[in-house]
Write a structure and sequence with these properties.
By secondary structure, the protein is α+β, with helices and mostly antiparallel strands. Helix content is 47%, strand content 14%. The strands form 4 sheets. The protein has a 5-stranded antiparallel β-sheet. A hairpin with a 3-residue loop joins strand 2 and strand 3.
């Protein structure tokens, strides 16, 4: 409730392992699924032959690059990282992507506790309420003085510009658009209403700060996993909560034991009362009539197997790291040229399979709707280049080429590799075994699984022309060889006749 809280929120945390694990997941997902420094998606018609047409290929590539430019100019990546961390810890996170006059779109990332969700009959999120705090000056500048409540107007008139106002943004299906005579200003599929939230039991007038709507649902919801008809997801953070609590408890007890052993509570005879007691190393305390029972000594002894406690703490840390997939996401966070998606598949296939459902949900519920929404904003703003005739009224799809997406598809690459190895070995004995392999289809599927940019591959017409030219060149070479052999034969025959003009096929020489 205090947006000026600063860094005072971690005072109760003794061991930072859970926080480090959460940050690792956030950074790993950012690097592995949607890195700002490398392409992580491309547009496609899902028709390889159509994608390979030069004008279609060029348009898809140009639009993809343009989208990356607008994404980089906005705050989308900043909110996306926060969403990944919240999703891993709390199971659910939200980004509200709204149109913006300066950067085309702007991302708002409410924290857990600031948003409320609802789903349709198919379990898809279609409603989001977000509550947030604004100052009186911000409310007036954003929504206009005349739309504010009397309380906000009075605060603004009295120059109490920092007066706190709670605002709710409601985005939900606009069922009233089918009602004749509806009072809504925008008959759109989703309505968008801003209103002041009553605080401290006070009433506010019923007028809205802003009343509008959206053609498409502008809310991106990231849910790690969902059980049944649950609206909110559950996460590795929930599974590791017990370990996190135990870790803090043991670290706290470890500190207490160290204090008891290094600075134990003392007992002393009454004669020491009022005297100066020096408890520092090497200190001297004068004790009258010092004897075996009259000196200063520990009140009780604390004995603890500190090594065993440290081993148990490390065991808890290991469980947390496994629960939060720290090793796997560290691998993607530290991706470099020496680390490929195929190596990741080979080394961590089991872990990738465990997070496979989460990745599918991430792509389907979060990133793909984000790309669709950004494309819609770009199209509405008229910044897209004219589409070629072949794409008129043609649906586009999104192909993810990030390292995590490649690693998932890489599991299928292993099957292709094994098929090619087996076929190659068999071809040594039975050459006809190679006839079953369609080399063009194999290479295109292989390149798609590896996330290769389509610009790297030639289109079918160019391939056909190249092979025809190669065949003609080979035919010309064979023809030249044949002519050369014929010429050599004729030359040899002429030389033989010059040496022995009466030679005949019988091998006999006339007298």
């Amino acid at each position: 409730s205090d947006r000026n809280y600063g860094d005072r929120r971690h005072g109760a945390i003794i061991d930072s392992t859970p926080l480090h694990a959460a940050r690792t997941i956030g950074a790993g997902l950012m690097s592995g699924a949607s890195s700002p420094v490398r392409p992580w998606f491309r547009l496609s018609t899902m028709d390889p032959e159509l994608d390979a047409q030069p004008e279609v290929n060029t348009w898809l590539s140009d639009v993809t690059k343009l989208m990356f430019g607008y994404i980089g100019d906005s705050n989308f990546y900043h909110q996306l990282h926060n969403a990944y961390v919240s999703e891993a810890v709390f199971g659910t996170s939200v980004i509200i992507l709204l149109p913006d006059d300066e950067t085309l779109f702007h991302a708002y990332g409410p924290a857990v506790g600031q948003f409320y969700l609802a789903t349709d009959a198919k379990g898809r999120v279609n409603t989001c309420y977000r509550e947030f705090e604004m100052t009186a000056a911000q409310v007036v500048r954003e929504f206009g003085y005349e739309n504010c409540s009397n309380e906000v107007q009075q605060a603004f008139d009295n120059e109490n510009f920092e007066h706190e106002v709670w605002v709710v943004h409601a985005i939900e299906p606009n069922d009233d658009r089918y009602v004749e005579g509806s009072a809504l200003k925008h008959q759109l599929p989703y309505r968008s209403v801003y209103f002041e939230f009553p605080a401290n039991g006070q009433k506010v007038d019923g007028k809205a700060l802003r009343d509008g709507g959206f053609e498409v649902f502008p809310v991106l919801v990231f849910r790690w996993d969902v059980a049944g008809e649950d609206v909110y997801g559950h996460s590795p953070g929930m599974e590791g909560l017990g370990d996190a609590i135990q870790l803090q408890h043991e670290q706290e007890r470890k500190g207490q034991v160290i204090d008891y052993q290094t600075r134990p509570p003392l007992q002393a005879p009454p004669s020491v009362k009022g005297a100066e007691v020096d408890t520092e190393p090497g200190g001297v305390t004068i004790v009258p009539n010092a004897g075996r029972e009259s000196g200063i000594r520990p009140l009780f002894e604390t004995r603890l197997d500190l090594g065993g406690l440290l081993n148990d703490i490390e065991d808890i840390r290991g469980r947390l790291r496994r629960t939060m997939f720290t090793d796997l996401f560290l691998m993607f966070q530290n991706l470099d040229k020496s680390m490929t998606a195929r190596e990741t598949v080979i080394r961590d296939t089991e872990k990738l399979l465990m997070i496979g459902p989460m990745l599918e949900r991430l792509f389907d519920e979060g990133l793909k709707p984000a790309i669709d929404l950004i494309f819609y904003y770009m199209s509405s703003a008229g910044v897209l280049p004219p589409a070629p005739p072949a794409l008129v009224e043609r649906d586009l799809d999104v192909v993810f080429v990030s390292p995590l997406a490649q690693a998932q598809r890489g599991i299928g690459i292993n099957s292709i590799d094994r098929l090619l190895q087996t076929t190659g070995a068999l071809a040594g004995m039975k050459p006809n075994a190679l006839d079953i392999i369609d080399e063009d289809a194999t290479m295109r599927i292989y390149a798609d699984m590896l996330g290769v940019d389509p610009d790297v591959l030639r289109d079918p017409d160019a391939i056909a022309a190249l092979r025809e030219a190669r065949a003609q060149e080979q035919a010309a070479v064979e023809q030249a060889k044949a002519l050369q052999q014929t010429s050599a034969s004729m030359k040899n025959a002429a030389e033989a006749e010059a040496i022995n003009p009466v030679a005949n096929t019988t091998g006999l020489v006339a007298p």
